[in-house]
Design goal:
By secondary structure, the protein is of the alpha/beta class. 32% of the residues lie in helices and 22% in strands. The chain has a single domain, classed as Rossmann fold (3-Layer(aba) Sandwich). It is built from eleven helices and eight strands. Strands 1, 2, 3, 4, 5, 6, 7 and 8 form an eight-stranded mixed beta sheet that branches. Strand 1, helix 4 and strand 2 form a beta-alpha-beta unit. It is globular. It is an enzyme of class 2 (transferase). This is Arsenite methyltransferase. Keywords: Methyltransferase, S-adenosyl-L-methionine, Transferase.
Length: 277
């Protein structure tokens, strides 16, 4: 995993497999990747089933939050979902934005795009579309989105700064994002940092919470706030695939924390440096 391209190849491979996995298997693992846990609970994902617009066929159990719950989407909005998977957040956003709005899902993995398009076709949603592409170089025009959402995806991208720059580019002045993601407090054990499957599983690619929030601010966003935060506990039966018993015990007492956070931030309404608006 020495280069960004190698990391992206790992994500492409794993999420192509995940697109075909059973939802229960995805929920029992870390973002669907890595080993499954025999402990019966969702490691990361929150329950979408009570949200209007929810579609079970589009829910692969891969998220770490409910960004569409906090995204302040209004009727007629144009919404972009980064890492749209099988379309779950897009379909909920579509319910919120209504027939007069538009929802664009962007995903890196062709298998996910195919599944999302098939789901949209079954639902006969004509104002939801899915585009394949890198989220640090989105296949959309500048200044066109009212809202950007994403669920447990930025941690998978090596160039997080590039993603935030492109979010800033595609948002209209005054537009905002609500993003759920994994962040850290402290330092992960080297064995987890270097594990390819744990990278695809949303953990080893996470950065410190302070660094994450600083990147958002440095990219020109304002009104930054954490809308929700919860601690993530990785079960021993997953950790033991990478760590010895002593290393697991040390990790548990190290003070290192893995958190899901949902972050809100807004693009300024006034034009900033030349060329940004």
């Amino acid at each position: 995993m020495s280069t960004d391209e190698q990391k992206k190849a790992i994500v492409m491979q794993k999420y192509s497999e995940i697109a075909l996995q059973d939802r229960a298997m995805n929920q029992a693992s870390c973002c669907g990747a890595g080993g499954c846990s025999t402990e019966v609970y969702n490691i990361m994902s929150d329950d979408y089933t009570q949200m209007e617009g929810y579609n079970a066929a589009a829910d692969l159990g891969l998220g770490c939050g409910l960004p569409t719950e906090f995204a302040k989407i209004k009727k007629g909005d144009t919404v972009i979902d980064l890492g749209s998977g099988a379309g779950n957040d897009c379909f909920i956003a579509r319910h919120q934005t209504g027939e007069t709005g538009k929802v664009i899902g962007i995903d890196f993995t062709p298998a996910m795009i195919a599944q999302a398009r098939a789901n949209a076709e079954k639902l006969q949603f004509h104002n939801v579309e899915f585009r394949q592409g890198d989220i640090e170089n989105m296949p959309v025009s500048a200044n066109m989105a009212d809202v950007v959402v994403s669920n447990c995806v930025l941690n998978l991208v090596p160039n997080k700064d590039g993603v935030l720059k492109d979010i800033f580019r595609v948002l209209k002045p005054g537009g905002h994002f609500s993003i759920s993601d994994i962040v850290l407090e402290g330092t992960l054990p080297p064995a987890i940092q270097q594990a390819a499957e744990m990278y695809a599983g949303c953990v080893s690619g996470a950065i410190l919470k302070a660094e994450y929030l600083s990147l958002i601010e440095k990219n020109g966003f304002e009104n930054i706030s954490i809308q929700k935060e919860k601690i993530i506990t990785i079960p021993d039966d997953i950790l033991q695939q990478y760590l010895s018993a002593d290393e697991i015990a040390g990790f548990r007492t190290s003070g290192t924390g893995i958190f899901s956070i949902t972050v809100f931030a807004q693009k300024p309404t006034a034009c900033c440096p030349p060329g940004c608006c």
